[in-house]
Design brief:
Elements (H helix, E strand, L loop, with lengths): L1 H18 L15 E14 L6 E14 L5 E7 L4 E5 L11 E6 L2 E7 L4 E9 L6 E9 L5 E4 L5 E18 L5
Antiparallel strand pairs: 1-2, 1-10, 2-3, 3-4, 5-6, 6-7, 7-8, 9-10
Length: 180
């Protein structure tokens, strides 16, 4: 029952944040302005190609970089191994047409949520220490209903995610704009 509640909360948060107007989003903590937060993890997946119906096991490395400008503008990049990256500013879609990510700050926590094409969502979080000099990362992938997760690929097309587990997660804070 606990897992079902967590997934329901995760998906509800994803829907709420995706619909949130930018004017109502909380400002980033002043201590993060001019800095980037980098969260890295690996997903172990069982995937199926909708075109060929071929199933494969995959070990996919991911990295999310969120940069907070000195004027409190937030930019983010999600990189997926050799598959490429997806750059977004203020929750807008990018050229890869990858799912919009909602970046939210609350106290000493940053949460980035994106929904998949169908059946699920990913929530990437960083919890900061009191001085905002270090962080701990968390990644949760939730499934809605009993159907499979369908996810857009950064290179185009879609993949069906039959199962997924998240490996070790790391989090770091760096100074400066990594996107220059």
């Amino acid at each position: 029952m606990r897992v079902r509640q967590l997934l329901s909360t995760l998906l509800g948060t994803a829907v709420a944040l995706a619909g949130m107007s930018l004017s109502t989003a909380l400002a980033a903590p002043a201590q993060l302005r001019g800095k980037a937060v980098v969260i890295s993890w690996t997903e172990q997946r069982r995937e199926r190609s909708p075109a060929t119906q071929q199933e494969t096991n995959a070990n996919r490395p991911f990295a999310l970089t969120v940069y907070v400008s000195p004027s409190d503008q937030t930019f983010n990049r999600l990189s997926a191994g050799n598959a490429g990256s997806s750059d977004q500013a203020k929750g807008s879609k990018d050229r890869t047409r990858f799912a919009v990510r909602a970046v939210n700050f609350s106290g000493t926590r940053m949460t980035v949520t994106n929904t998949f094409s169908a059946g699920g969502a990913r929530q990437i979080s960083a919890t900061f220490d009191a001085g905002f000099s270090g962080c701990t990362g968390t990644v949760v992938i939730g499934r809605s209903g009993s159907g499979p997760i369908t996810q857009s690929k950064m290179g185009g097309g879609e993949i069906v995610v039959l199962s997924v587990s998240v490996g070790a997660v790391s989090c770091a804070i760096t100074s400066g704009n990594p996107f220059q």
